[in-house]
Amino acid sequence: MRTVLLTGFEPFESEPINPSWEAVRALDGVRIGNGPDDLDAAIIVARQLPCVFGAANDALADLVDAINPVLVIAVGQAGGRPEMSVERVAINVDDARIADNAG
Predict the structure, then answer these.
(1) 3 bridge partner residues
(2) Which residue has the higher pLDDT, 36 or 6?
(3) 41: burial class by Cβ within 10 Å (0-12, 13-18, 19+)?
(4) What is the dihedral of CA 53, 54, 59, 61, to 10 degrees?
(5) pLDDT attached to residue 94
(6) pLDDT for 40-94, tens place per residue?
(7) Sheet architecture: strand order including 71-74
(8) Fewer beta carbons below 10 Å: N end or C end of the chain?
(9) How crowded is the C-beta side of 99, counted as CA atoms within 13 Å?
């Protein structure tokens, strides 16, 4: 059976939850598709990433190696946006208005 990897992030900036993780963890273990064999279906595997520069990339790479998914969907939280949106261009600069969870 194929695997779809969904990732969300741990809480940060003293927040008790991170909506990105809450959204994807609800889908962990869900089977997609109802074909006659496992080639027509996929299972969702949800995993949480750390809110630490560099460590999140390393953790994602390790998950891809371990799970070998056919698709990865990485979900994050964008404070201040009123609705869900697809990030078309990522400018992944290790710089932010607040410190990561490692300080």
Answers:
(1) 43
(2) 6
(3) middle
(4) 140
(5) 66
(6) 789 999 999 999 888 999 999 999 999 999 999 999 887 777 777 777 776 766 6
(7) 31-32, 42-49, 2-9, 71-74
(8) C
(9) 4
Buried b (16+ CB within 10 A) or exposed e, 49-64: bbbbbeebeebbeebe
DSSP per-residue codes, 68-101: --SEEEE----TT-SS----SS----S--SS--T
* Euclidean distance between CA atoms 18 and 14, whole angstroms: 10
Are β-strands 31-32 and 42-49 bridged in parallel, bridged antiparallel, or unpaired?
Answer: antiparallel
| Residue 9 tokens, joined | 């992030």
Claim: this prediction has a pTM higher than 0.70 = yes
25: which 2 tokens?
Answer: 């963890």
- With contact defined as beta carbons under 8 Å apart, do 78 and 71 qualify? no
24, amino acid identity: V
- Residue 36: its pLDDT value, please? 67
Contacts of residue 31, Cβ cutoff 8 Å, sequence gap at least 6: 41, 42, 43, 44
